[in-house]
Protein: RZ-type domain-containing protein
Amino acid sequence: MPENAHMDIIRVMKNTGNEGKTFTIRYCPNGHPFIIGACGHPTEKVICAVDRCGKEIGDLIYIDTNTGLKELEIPKGYVLDGSDEELSIGDSFWRFEGKQEIRRIYEVACTLLRLLIHLSLLIRNAAVQEGCKQLQELLKKESAEEVTKFLEKQAIGYFQLLGKITELNDELLAVALHQMLDGLPQIFNRWYPNGLDGTDLITTYDFEKKFDSQYAGFFSRLEKFNELNNRSRIAMDEDKAMKEIFSEIEEKKQLTNPITSNISRIYEIWSVKYLPVIGQWMRHVYFHYSRQITQQECQLKTVTQVIEEWQQKGYGSEAKSYLQLWSGFKTCWNALANQTVKNDCKSFTIPRLDEDDKISLEFSTAQNKNNGLIIVKIIQLLQDAHNTFLEDVMEKYEKTINHEEKHEAKNDCRYMQKIIGKNKSLFNIHESDVVCLDKDQVTKIIQQWSLPSLKYGAINKARNDTLDLYAIENEIAHRFIKTRQILEIGIPFLQFSNQLNIKNCIDIIEENNKELKKEPFDQPLLQMFLSSLQSQSEMQRALGILNEVIVFVSQNIKIFELQINKNYLHVLMSCCFYFIFFMHRDKYFVELLEQMSFDEKNRKLFMMDLEDRQENFILCRHMCSLWRLLNNAVQSTFVDKSTIDNCVLDTYKKSLTEQLKQQLQATVENTSLRTTEKILDEWRDTAQIEGQKNE
Structure:
């Protein structure tokens, strides 16, 4: 940046109180410099006394060629020395050729350019793993560490110097630099649409003059920077207001109740209040579309189309409540957007929902894959936040009270009762079931219990508010936490019209009862049952009964577990009283058949005629494995090449026209499972007869 080696002289003059005065550096014919003040050029003969030079410069008639103006080359390479004076006093440069100013750059622009140059060099050095060799040569340093240390010192020094010159503190200066850097690329492209023309002096001076003109007064907009800084603080405070308050409380060491220290998952706990809204929105979606829409149709249908369809079907009076539910659903979703969640060994990021006419209905349906998996993970995330919060509150509360206070605490703090787990369907969750912390209400509570604190005689001084922490915490606990329990939320999956088959029903049952997956289908008990069936018709009848039971069970799925967690007993009860008998997986299967009103003849199929029946009864937990065993046996019996000849099968392998395919698809979707089974039975019988004829 400097044009000569005499910048130290200028800094000394500034440091001694001569800043702002006019002075010019001139040179004798032998190149010795000296400073001339006032008019900037010698008006009389001056004798150079440096090293007994004796050369004359200037005269009374002012001849341009004898004024001592010297054309200097800009030193190449890095000429800054990193001295304390260099980083504490701002530099400015100007240059005239005759009476024409060809260069002018003031302190602000000069210091700003140096800051940007050193930041760029620092990034360049960090981008190379072993350091940039060219920078080591330029700065005459032996290692990358020395380069980094030097550039860091220079960058920090020029940042502080820029703050000193502009009279901005670090916070406001950072805001100003952010604004400047945000617009610099556009401004540079406007100056040089085709890039910088070159690196010669004329081009360099032109750039410096433009830069100085653009940013000389940029840092004087104090009002603007304060406004931007306050706006950013407000945006941060909206999400972190409670966190900052609790941080202040922790610093004061005045905690008497542990509730305020339990906001470890701040964003998730604020969103727990949306669980009832999510449940009600999805309940309406399931009511209108369960078993009535294919998965492909669900993916293509948007939320806007859904609302319009409901209005057309006569639900216009409820449209407002539907829109409110959808708004809450979307708000909760976007509050958790961009979070990474795990699914088995994989993970994915929750996407953001934008325009309603582009959001697929599939996002509002629970599935074990694709977009339907996202809402399942969001619900589980909120459930975990709710449960963790309650467990931490209970644990820390017990640690804070001493033995003498325990009896009184049991009476006064009933919200700290022993937490018992409760299983609830997503569709039946209400505000009273979850920790419905609301930012506005919590802030209002804090304001209500914020008391003014003034010393005697200081009535005109600024008011200092004192927080009644005990009252705040107890009111929050009473309003938002009392009577809440650990939750295990049952999430029903949407059944599509093209998914209604036995295998999907079995998947639903096993997904909600993990223990059933561990049952082997070739265990001796089931093999004994299979051998007890005396004919193929009995085998078919047993499989048909199992089909009906499995469909029924999948529609009334139950979960029953006993789980011990941190000395609390979580009893996850069933949410459907009608199906309470199935919560015991070790109940006899025939009892289930009796409850479902199967006649005695059908029940006897599953009662093996054995001496020791106590240990050889088919149980409810065997049903999925038994279905697989029976299904394999039926298929191997009725689809056998010895009974159905290949030429017969080839007869039925005729391609269908597109119209017939569509008609067949519509018929299958509108035909019950029982009727479809009968059609297949008839087809098998016909195929057997045809095969025997050909033989």
